Amino acid sequence: MTHVLLLGGTTGASQLAQALHQAGVPAVFSYAGVTQAPLAQPLPVRVGGFGGVPGLVQYLVDHGITHVVDATHPFAAQMSRRACEACAMAGVPLLALERAPWQPGPGDRWIDVPDMAAAAAALPAEATRVFLAVGRKQLQAFAGLGQHHYLLRLVDDPEPGSLPWPDAAVDLEVGRGPFSAEHDLALLRAHRVQWLVAKNAGGEATRGKLDAARALGLPVVMVQRPALPQRARTEDVGAVMRWLRHGVLPSEDVSAGTP
Ligand code: 3Y8
Ligand code: NAP
Questions:
Q1: How does 29-67 read in b/e, with b if 16+ C-beta sit within 10 Å?
Q2: Mind giving me the DSSP string for 1-39?
Q3: Which end of the chain is more exposed for a tag (fewer CB within 10 A), N or C?
Q4: Is the fold of 4-100+227-255 the same as that of 109-223?
Q5: Band of the pLDDT at 259, cuts 50, 70, 90?
Q6: Ligand 2 centre from 83 Cα, in Å?
Q7: Ligand 1: does its nearest atom lie under 6 Å from the Cβ of 206?
Q8: Is 67 near ligand 2, meaning CB less than 6 Å away?
Q9: 3 state DSSP class of 52
Q10: Is the CB of 43 under 6 A from ligand 2?
Q11: 254 pLDDT tier (thresholds 50, 70, 90)
Q12: Would you kindly state where each structural domain of the chain is located, as residue ranges?
């Protein structure tokens, strides 16, 4: 009897949850619990970490999980690494639902950097206005750059005093996305943004800010994805459903991750 553990927290995971629900496939949707009110799902939901690899192995065994789909974000690297390890130990098949990285197009002014520290170093020394679209957990890398004015987009209101700059240096937009290019163009204009910092999340839900930056001719510091272990992956919800039904992916769907 199939029982799927869906590691979620992204638009793709929400789309797969709908497909699993409509197909009547027994599944449980898993959130880390880092936002106050995550999107409701049409599947039973569990929230919170598993307790590292041993905790996840125990969960797989206790709940008779037959398949794991890692539909977490490309930057949720620790979860993805631990899922690979736990599934190998428990002998449970794993498939990643992962969108391709964004590629620059004509008119894009991207500065590719390997990590958040390099992103901070890529900003100009002189004071400017920066849209940090990297979430709450990554702000510390920019804490020492008090000369800039920041526009932050967070999923939840930050705790008072939790931001690493004085309130006067920060404009805050609280929102979950997806965000349209029109919305983000108005946002960048309203806040006179001169620089963007983004993670190469891929997908359509937040590429609007990149289209808006191109329209305004703004430079984008683009943080590359962390390396992940080799694992079967696909970008297509239908391919996941075929894998669950028939156990294999057509070869064109399976490409190894970044070594
Ligand atoms: C908790 C689940 C969906 C929901 C939307 C996608 C799209 C918007 C892109 C910008 C960039 C950012 C951030 C972002 C994106 C979608 C998708 C995606 C980026 C939710 C969600 C959870 C999280 C966690 C949250 C992180 C933060 C990152 C905000 C739900 C809304 C910046 C990443 O405060 C915190 O602790 C937030 C932490 C991890 C990155 C960070 O380091 O702070 N996402 N995002 C999931 C869980 O608890 O398991 O609350 O409903 C999901 C979404 N986030 O399903 O359509 O699919 O990628 N989320 C980044 O890419 O830079 C926003 O503003 O342009
Ligand atoms: P992370 O750093 O890779 O994971 C940290 C720990 O959080 C994991 O080791 C695991 O704890 C727990 N965890 C993460 N995702 C989980 C899930 N879906 N279900 C249960 N436990 C989970 O993760 P993150 O970058 O903080 O991302 C947290 C969540 O936000 C994920 O669901 C991810 O899909 C979503 N998200 C992240 C980003 C981003 O930019 N990172 C963007 C959009 C959405 P244990 O080891 O104890 O199991």
A1: bbbbebeeebeebebebeeeebeebeebbebbeeeebeb
A2: ---EEEE--SHHHHHHHHHHHHHT--EEEEE---SSSPP
A3: N
A4: yes
A5: very low
A6: 11
A7: yes
A8: no
A9: helix
A10: no
A11: low
A12: 4-100+227-255, 109-223
CATH fold, domain 4-100+227-255, is Rossmann fold (3.40.50)
Is the sign of the CA dihedral 242, 245, 250, 253 positive or negative?
positive
Q: Is the distance from the beta carbon of residue 10 to the nearest atom of ligand 2 less than 6 Å?
A: yes
- Rounded to whole angstroms, the Cα distance separating 234 from 96 reads 6
Question: Both tokens of residue 189?
Answer: 């204009």
**CATH code assigned to 109-223:** 3.40.50
Side chain identity at residue 30, one-letter code: S
Closest ligand 1 atom to the C-alpha of 136?
43
Sign of CA dihedral 66, 236, 214, 154: negative
Look-up: residue for tokens 């849209």? 131
- 206's CB contacts (< 8 A; 6+ apart) are 133, 177, 178, 179, 198
Q: How far is the CA of 10 from the centre of ligand 1 (A)?
A: 7
Give the span between the Cα atoms of 235 and 237, in whole angstroms.
7
Q: What is the pLDDT of residues 78-109, one digit of tens each?
A: 999 999 999 999 999 999 999 999 999 999 99
- Which contiguous run of DSSP H or E holds residue 113? strand 109-113
60: three-class secondary structure by DSSP? helix
